[in-house]
Amino acid sequence: MPVYNVYWKAIKPNGSxxxxxxxxxxxxxxxxxxxxxxxxxxxxxxxxxxxTDIKER
Length: 57
What we know:
- It is built from 1 helix and 3 strands, in the order ββαβ.
- The protein is an alpha+beta fold.
């Protein structure tokens, strides 16, 4: 299965934001994006999570 580097940004209601990246193994970029968004959303449930970039390694 392909490996993807997924970069994300989470913006909280108070205006603070967090950014990061994660390497995931997934069948396709869409699944990799959803997996990372779900993990970030668990960490900050009230944040809006966006994937800013995704690259296949």
